[in-house]
Design a protein that fits this description.
signal; Phosphate-binding protein; 279 residues; phosphate ion binding; D-Maltodextrin-Binding Protein, domain 2
Length: 279
């Protein structure tokens, strides 16, 4: 009888330990979690800083952020390999269709405004182009800077690759879906575009506002500078919104991060990084 009582006591103790462990695990999952964010290199600096600040405040969270382009991020979200996709364009119809086929309810969250700045090498005297001149350069109709009032110097066209949301917006607003010149240097990130332009006197490229440095020269388009005021007023012609995408049933940790981006502190980070906050 004593052996049975002892056995029952041991079983009860094991059950209590198991329940306590499960409860602690559930509490841990509720308090924190791992969040994977990938996509647009335009938004990358924003979310890298967001992750740093948020993890300092909430060490129970583990947030990983990587680039690759808007298309890469959205694909990862739809495939289930990312919790949040960064996109410098809206989702395409075929991406929404894929989400529907997979029975995924996707949320679109605007987090900032941006202008796509056209940049030249600092030594290039050209200070502005019309949209038509810019288009002619990128489709190969104009090949020398002297054709647009600049020096007798071949134009080196630098562009983002097709996985980029920045390319999608530039293609729509500038190229009007005409074919990009075949000898354009295709780059995988804003930083790579900037590096190519600063390394070649005849180069022209386009980057998000947050990537402008003294190593490149932003120019006017149709007589308008890419400033916050002129972007918000709609006068600057190559402007866009920046987005995060996540599933409507995303883990709590992912929703917490998005909420932080939209908070006053998060929007302050948007401005500090070089973009235009929503508020």
């Amino acid at each position: 009888m004593r052996r049975i009582t002892t056995l029952l006591t041991l079983m009860l103790m094991v059950a209590m330990v198991f329940n306590i462990g499960c409860k602690k695990k559930e509490e841990g999952e509720e308090k924190g979690g791992e969040v994977t964010i990938t996509g647009s290199t335009t938004i990358l600096p924003i979310m890298q800083r967001i992750a740093e600040v948020y993890m300092e405040k909430h060490p129970e969270y583990e947030i990983s952020v990587s680039g690759g382009g808007s298309g890469v991020g959205i694909t990862a979200l739809l495939d289930g390999t990312a919790d949040i996709a960064m996109a410098s364009r809206t989702m395409k119809d075929k991406e929404w269709a894929t989400a529907k086929e997979k029975q995924l309810d996707i949320k679109e969250v605007e987090i900032a405004r941006d202008g796509i700045a056209v940049v030249l090498h600092p030594t290039n005297p050209v200070s502005g182009l019309t949209l038509e001149q810019l288009k002619d350069i990128y489709i190969g109709k104009t090949k020398n800077w002297k054709e647009v009032g600049g020096p007798d110097l071949d134009i080196v066209v630098v562009s983002r690759d097709s996985a980029s949301g920045t390319f999608e917006v530039f293609n729509k607003k500038v190229l009007k879906d005409e074919k990009l010149r075949v000898d354009a240097l295709m780059q995988a990130s804003n930083a790579a575009v900037r590096s190519s332009v600063e390394g070649s006197e005849g180069a022209i490229g386009y980057i998000g506002l947050g990537y402008i440095t003294g190593d490149v020269k932003p120019i006017k388009i149709d007589g308008v500078e890419p400033t916050e005021k002129l972007i918000l007023s709609g006068e600057y012609p190559i402007a866009r919104s920046l987005y995060l995408y996540l599933k409507s049933d995303a883990i709590k940790a992912a929703n917490d991060v998005v909420d932080f981006v939209l908070s006053n502190e998060g929007q302050k980070i948007v401005r500090e990084v070089g973009y235009i906050p929503l508020k």
